[in-house]
UniProtKB/TrEMBL annotation:
Keywords per UniProt: Membrane, Transmembrane, Transmembrane helix
Annotated TM spans: 72-94, 106-125, 200-220
InterPro entries in UniProt: Toll_tir_struct_dom_sf
Domain of life the protein comes from: Eukaryota
Name of this chain's protein: Uncharacterized protein
């Protein structure tokens, strides 16, 4: 028996440690519908969330101590950020074309719409996407490993390599304490042994959080200016100011 055959059999043995009914995954859009509660170890029932699957598009690796809100925002920005940016560009392009060609006069609600459309895409893109194509299945330990059955939980933890071996990409939700967690480093090491490094995606949790805070400040500012405009607090000058900020 050559070395390649031996390696294949060893991998198959690892897969055999987990019975098919324990290979549970969650559709990507569920990660956004459940919000931070899905990441909470004591987040309540998760019945009906998981589905039996044979492969995972993404294995989500994270440290329990990291903020659940940061993880949620990181996934939103990573998976839905580009479509949201494209929606913002197209909305601005359409509104700008209509006003520049004098097809439609500029109105103070236009900048608000330019924020509302991409924000909607940011939160709902996966729901729109799954209408047209198959939805990615992901592995998230706190949802895919039973938390209320210690025996099954221990079996899944011992067979963690089976989940990793069936994953196309490893998404690391990186926080400062990630490398200090043994299971986190094990997940990266095992996956890297079986796959190329470009199949691992590192997402620093601080960056999406900062992005959301900046966007929230801009949104609140624009909304406040719009309310002030329609209330007549600043007169016609506010319309011009909104146009400058929107540009």
């Amino acid at each position: 028996m050559n070395e390649a055959t031996s390696t294949t059999e060893n991998v198959d043995d690892r897969f055999a440690e987990i019975s098919p009914e324990l290979l549970q995954g969650i559709p990507l859009h569920v990660c956004f519908h459940r919000g931070r509660s899905l990441w909470n170890r004591l987040g309540g029932t998760r019945s009906g969330v998981t589905q039996t699957t044979r492969r995972y598009s993404y294995f989500l690796s994270h440290a329990w101590a990291a903020s659940s809100w940061s993880k949620y925002l990181a996934l939103l920005v990573h998976f839905n950020g580009v479509p949201a940016a494209m929606a913002a560009f197209l909305t601005g392009l359409i509104l700008g074309t209509l006003t520049s060609l004098e097809i439609m006069p500029f109105a103070s609600w236009m900048p608000i719409l330019a924020h509302f459309v991409p924000a909607s895409v940011l939160f709902l893109w996966q729901d729109l996407r799954r209408i047209l194509c198959s939805e990615p299945m992901v592995f998230l330990d706190c949802a895919c490993i039973p938390q209320d059955d210690d025996a099954v939980k221990a079996k899944c933890v011992r067979g963690l390599s089976s989940f990793l071996g069936r994953s196309d990409k490893l998404v690391v939700l990186w926080s400062p304490d990630f490398v200090r967690r043994l299971w986190c480093t094990y997940e990266v090491a095992f996956f890297l042994k079986q796959n190329q490094a470009d199949h691992i995606l590192f997402i620093p949790l601080q960056v999406p959080t900062l992005w959301f805070l900046i966007y929230l400040v801009v949104w609140i500012t624009r909304t406040t200016l719009y309310i002030a405009d329609i209330s007549g607090l600043y007169g016609d000058s506010i319309v011009g100011y909104l146009g400058i900020v929107g540009g």
